[in-house]
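Loading example: each entry is read as two labelled lines plus one structure line.
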Amino acid sequence: MTATQRMDRVPSPSPSPSSSPTPSRRRRHRERAGSRLAAVLIVAIIVLPLVPLVINSFARGYVFPQLVPAEWSTRAWSIVLATDGGTWRALGWSMVVATTVTALALLVALPAGRVLGLRSFRGKRVLEFLVLTPLLVPAVAVAIGLDITFIRLGLSGTFWGVVLVHLIPAAPYAVLILAGAFANYDADFEAQARTLGASPLSVFRHVTLPAIMPGLIVAGFIAFIVSWSQYVLTLQIGGGKVLTLPVLLVSTASGGDMAITGALTIVYALPVVVLLVVASRHVARAGWGMTGT
Amino acid sequence: MMTRVDLVGVTKHFGSVHPVEDFSLSIQPGRVTALLGPSGSGKTTLLKMIAGVLRPTSGDIRFDGESVLDLPAPERDAPMVFHNALLFPHLTVEDNVGFGLRVRKTRPAERSRRVAEMLQLVGLQDLGTRRPKQLSGGQQQRVALARALVVSPKLLLLDEPLANLDPDLRSEMRELLLNVQRSIGLTMVLVTHDQEDAIVIADQVALIRDGTLVQEGVAREFFERPASAWVAMFFGAGNLIPGERTNNEVVTPLGRLRVISESPAFGPVLVTIRPEAVVLDAVEGQPNSFQTRVIAAEFRGTHIRMQFTAAGVDLEATIPVDEAKSYAVGDTVRITLPPEKLWSLPAEEKRPLRPSPRT
């Protein structure tokens, strides 16, 4: 009995490379196949809905029950991508607004998420709920009332007015995601860095930031998407002066030209898809957390 | 570098929790001082206050006579080594060790030279390019030590550096700490709940209970001259005999016992003796000797642990293995408590007498 136990502890020679696949290796194989299937599914869910749009954007006179258009054309694309058209300007508005909203949302969410994630205090649950409320109340309900205030403040129809109103749904997401990131973070790492001589700025740059980077990327991505896809709030506060892509897209779609609408939708969706791919790569690479033991 | 550290009436309150209360201690330069105490006694809080990570509620902390209360942690040159090593997971071993130099903007050439030197010192010169996750617990602890030493600190603060290690790694790490201390000669403060670590590594031991200093001195004094019954229990003394002391005699249920004259307590006292100081098979007529009955004899590998009872008092003794053969449970044995080994303590209030030294 004891002899066999002792035998077990003797390091066994490493399996030779020529040996047949072990059960564990086969399992790993199956797991890899499974995750590949999942990846294919996710891509299909994101990419497949875009296919009819692509077909539409190159079609001329595409009516039911045709499976593929009878005639192809680049008319819609030349209109949408025309240098003097509104597309580029709208793309520019969307980019600048979404980027600014993302930056401001993260600026608010870093300290707020840190407190919610690291500290425990009386009323924390209530505070977390309050952070969530902007997501529970329909934005339109707030926007109409807010518009009156914004007109009084001279923010209506301005860039900053739109940015501010976008922060209402964007910031809570960022705060909650970063609170999650900080909840898995051991603040003793910062104490450790300080005793080794690191200034507050060094601690943030070399310790805190790398540790919460995955959360920061996800929070930034979500904030960007929330702002990028705002239509009602932009229209209400922007008053047609801040013409972002969704505003242009809806007015184009109501015009009834399916080809142009298709092309514009692709212009609208593509940056987000690219961003998603880039962000998910970074999150995967930054996948080491500074969690305590 | 040798820095003297003075803790003067240091107190720390977190709301209604008071982990450290009016704590004063002089930590000698160039020596190893152990802050020893059961878990939750406030010793890590003390260490963090010395490091500058926490600020005392009141009291003063002085390095070489000068108050450091307003000196932020990065400027104290007192790196801490945490019990779980806390290596930065996104950095290699080399970059972890070089962290303190990098934030001090040391030139890269100088930095890599000193990092290599420190890795050599802790015996990990071949693992510089590894990630912390690829190291064992003992190796991580060594890297953490190298990372603290590379900045040529005034003071090295160790928080349970041996707690997470296997027994053989523990003794290896103890050796390493002692070697480092001898070769660099810096002031070291070690927090531990393990009296053995404190005894082996430290020159000076400060025993803490509930955030206050209970006794301070060299390790031997805790065994031979404990300040209270709690201290005696913490250091494994099983013998506590109640009695009434006048001059150098204590009236106990076992009869009159003579004690060391310098024993501090008079009146109602507890008399204590180390289990290894009890003498068996005494001749009748010797002072402090009496008949007892054996109630247990346990083989403990290196020694035999005996338990006796007499007049309602239980006594404990440890004796060498070869002497033990002749005793069995139920035997009557005459034992002596040599007067020069008997120490009297104030009969303490009935506080829980069970410290929890993990042995």
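The longest helix of chain A spans residues 86-118.
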